[in-house]
Amino acid sequence: MIQRMGLAAVLWALAACSSTVEGPAQTGPSTLARNPLIWADVPDPAVIRVDDTFYMSSTTMHMNPGLPLMASPNLVDWTLIGYAYDTLADGNASTLTGGEQAYGRGSWASSLRYHRGRFYVSTFANHTGKTYIFSSEDIGSGEWQRAEIDELFHDASLVFDQGRAFLLYGNDDIHLVELTADATALKPGGLRTTVIEKASSIAGEDFWVPAEGAQVIKRNGYYYINLISWPANGMRTQLVYRAKQLTGPYEGRVVLQDRGIAQGGLIDTPEGDWYAFLFRDFGAVGRTPYLVPVHWEDDWPIYGVDGQVPEVLGIASSQPGLGNLVAPDEFDYPEAGSMPTAIKLAWQWNHNPDASGWSVTDRPGYLSLTNQRLDKGLLDTRNTLTQRMFGPEARATVALDTSHLLAGDVAGLAALQAHYGFVGVEKSETGASLIMVAGQAEDAEVNETVAARVALPQSRVYLQIRADFKDQRDTATFWYSLDGSHWQSIGTELQMKYTLPHFMGYRFALFNYATQTPGGRADFDFYRLE
Fold first, then answer.
1. Quick one: pLDDT band at residue 25, thresholds 50, 70, 90?
2. Distance CA 285, CA 276 (A)
3. Could you tell me if 324 and 40 are in contact, meaning their C-beta atoms sit under 8 angstroms apart?
4. Which of 94, 267, 297, 448 is the most exposed place for a label (fewest CB within 10 A)?
5. Same structural domain, 271 and 411
6. What is the pTM of this model?
7. Where are any strands of DSSP class E within 205-298?
């Protein structure tokens, strides 16, 4: 359902990929890259190098397809090449059924490896209690062998060492567990031990988040474990432990305390330069990747320049925006019979999609969302199609045909997180209204307020959300137009908030849900970005 990229396409895209969406201060055909590398939500990065190409995996929680995979020729210009899975699990939580949901859970921090001609990526999911390991000979093909382990290994780093395979994992106490050599199962009778006790202790005594986020490399005879911790009343802090043996004993240091930039691993270039690839909590836009120069002293990595992460990097960037990580869409896709066809990689569904409820071929040139059931509101709705918001400013516009909505249907464009807002059309027995809604999910309750309502005199309408992330202003405003040229604001400004229940940056979201009768259809003509 999502377009995939083989290796040849990956190499072409790395050289040619561009976007009409401008990125952070990258305006020329070739200029020095700047931090954040990607002004959008790409958390928990795991980065490897295979020959002269870099690859990254990341976290997208409850979104599907999931476990996104990216490639880069230079560590700064990244192209989305695929996902490790289309759906992670079935069941009520994965399908927003029976009042259950997987918000903020799904797949968490991954580990990416290349071993004996094969790519491996591991993750774990709190809503299933399992650990997953995917492997493929072609990282961009979408053809992944899947292994499930019926045990949850928190923030695990996959390690191949001397013909054996392990997961190094944990929170504060860091553990090692042995896998079968092909990394598909726990090894019966294999090694299982604690390699670091109280790993947070080198950074303080009281913590909001103890040491976690393990990423392991081996260099010059040492094993290095990167971890993060968050001292109470402090900031997210990067830690490094080293040992001559994988099982220890380990000694550790605090290696970076700067604006909370932390969590990730170490990576070298073909030229012998070293970097740490980390992320920063950047308000409502999410967790944004940062590249940190590293040099070595006495076999210890020294992070940053005088302990600080530079804004400007000494790497030329030729990609003037976010590449294909976000993408406008006219929904002009090839015919594929009666089945939905592939859509752009930038799109992800909120939870598991229902294939019978969406199509880009039933009405050529449109994304059609047809309600298959009744829902209470936006956060209960399957087949909500999303893309990342991005900084410093982002504007998304859709054209919506409401001709086939039924009474009780609500369709539109949302700023999606637990604290959300949307502009849309509500159909009733007597007509249609434009509405702006502000909502807040708290525990099991969702409180929604219709902040504005305007009669809609026609079936076609244009909807727009304008987001401002400059200086972490984190505001969204909502707009509509009857002709696509003259815009009118509607409702109230949304003060966006990054919340842990959803645990991800804000998303633009296209949706349609029924409150009275299934079968109503919303047709989106285009999705455009500025």
1. very low
2. 22
3. no
4. 297
5. no
6. 0.93
7. 207-219, 222-231, 237-243, 251-256, 262-268, 274-281, 287-297
